[in-house]
Structures are given as C-alpha cells and as structure tokens.
Design goal:
Helices cover about 25% and strands about 30% of the residues. The protein is an alpha+beta fold. Among the domains are: about 140 residues, Immunoglobulin-like, CATH 2.60.40.3650; about 60 residues, Winged helix-like DNA-binding domain superfamily/Winged helix DNA-binding domain (Arc Repressor Mutant, subunit A, Orthogonal Bundle), CATH 1.10.10.10. The strands form four sheets. It has a seven-stranded mixed sheet, with no helix packed on it. The longest helix is centred in the C-terminal third of the chain and has 26 residues. Keywords: Membrane, Transmembrane, Transmembrane helix. InterPro entries: ArsR-like_HTH, AsnC-type_HTH_dom, WH-like_DNA-bd_sf, WH_DNA-bd_sf. This is Winged helix-turn-helix transcriptional regulator.
Amino acid sequence: MKSLHPLLLSLLLAISTLRALCSPTSLVKVEVFVDGSAHVVYTFPTNGSAVIDLRLIGQPDPNFLVLVQNERGELLTYAINETSSVMTIIAINSTQVTVDYYTQTITSKVGGRWVVNFTTPLPAVVKLPPNATLSALYVIPASIATEGQSIVLTYPAGPVKLAYILPPAVKTQPKPPPQTQPPSNASQVQQPPPQVQQEKGQPQGFSPLFYGLAAVTAAVVVAYFLLRRREAGERLSEVDVQILNILKQSGGGLFQSELASLLGLPITTVWRHVKKLESRGLVVVEKRTGRNFVKLTRTV
C-alpha cells in the first residue's frame, strides 16, 4: 500500500485543523464565587434544530436575570421545567445559543470546606474562587490549571464533584489617630488653612457632569430591567412548548383537532395557544378543506 505524499498529508492536516477551529464548540463555564454562588454560561451550536431541550446545571437564581441569546445577540424564547431542570429553547433561524444565569444550588458548605457537585451535559470548565485550595477530587478532571489566583479544572460531560477550602478572612485593625505635640509657646500655634468655600448644594469633588452621567446610567438600567420583565412575562407556557414539540415530531404540521386530541385539551383552549404562537411567528395557520391546519414556520 502506497503512503500518502507528505505535501498531501500536510494539506489534509491543515484542512482538519481549520474545520476544528471554525466549527462552533459546545462548552459550559462555571465560575464559583466566595459566597458559594456560581455563574453558569452555556455555549453550543443548534445543529439546525429549531427547538432545543437543555439540561441545566443547578436551579437559576430568581433574583437574577436569565439571558438566552443567539449568535447575533437576539433574545430567544424559552421555558424552564423546574421539576426536571430542563430548559426548552426556541432557536428558529439561529446557529448558536448562549445561556447565561446564576445559581446557588451546586455548592454546599460542610464545616470549613466547600463542596461543588453537579452533572454537566457538556464539557465543563470550573473556575474556583481566588486563593482557594483543593482538598478533594471525587471525580478526576481532564486537566488542572491556574488563572491568576484561581484554580481552573476541565471536565468531560458527566458528573463533577470536588471540594476546596478558602483562607480565613484577614481582619484589619484600625489605625490609631496620630498624636500631636502640644505647642511650647502660645505664639507658635499655627492657624488652620483657610477653608475653600463650596457652592451651596454641590458636595466637594463632584461636578454637574458626574450627576448627569449618573442619571443617564440609572435610566438605562431601569429601562433594561423593565424590558427584561416584559420579556419574562411573555415566555412560552408548557402547553405552548408541547404544541411546538408535537408539531416537530409530526413532520411540522397537524390539524387543530389532532393537536387537541393529542394534548387532551378542548379545541378552544388549543386555539388560544395556537394564536399566541402565530403572533410570535412560530407557527402559521392555513385553511384546508374548511379546517385549521397548524404548521411550524420552519420545517424541523
């Protein structure tokens, strides 16, 4: 058997490397903080799927926002089944998805030791708090490195469990006020420097420009949270997600009566959910032989 020409072999290796660099990767980054909370960020390709089920690491903290975006930074519609910790994402016309949230349910403190314990559906990178010391590895990681003052561990998809210890907090003692020597002669008493008169109503060191920038920043933050609150109120219900999954499994379309039969719901109830999905551009309704035919806007 003839061996490949060295030039051809080099070309094949270069093409393979280029494909690996250009293809989107699936990864979840978990950064653990000093208080035991964690920041979780998923990044993965859709592979052409319009409806994606993602198993979450821990329960998202309700005090923080959950961001689900595509490669263009557009917000995607999603629903979370809190019983199974599965997020269903509508990723129509998207090639990559990023899921970003905070959680407090993957760590626990036993005595003076913190334990991280979860199961990841994707390869994971775990970053421990600064100056943390590993005390146990219940699951051997693929690699261990350092990033600044933090330990970084990588794991394949599957269980992740480790323990670490944080150094005790250093308490700083307040410095005593400097002692002053009493003057030896009354004539040598120094007069205090003249006070700079400040304009009334403006604290020293802050200009009107500072207050203007602060007001603009506060307005932007309030507008952002109002937008996210409105978006959160428009999330799909479990019935909406079930309709999309049934249409997907049925080749992309069914009659309304067939949907109602499969869901076990009245036709009027199903019609309300269908109209909601149609208003979002997820399905279209066509009249066929006098009946409503519901189909996905994109064949899955």
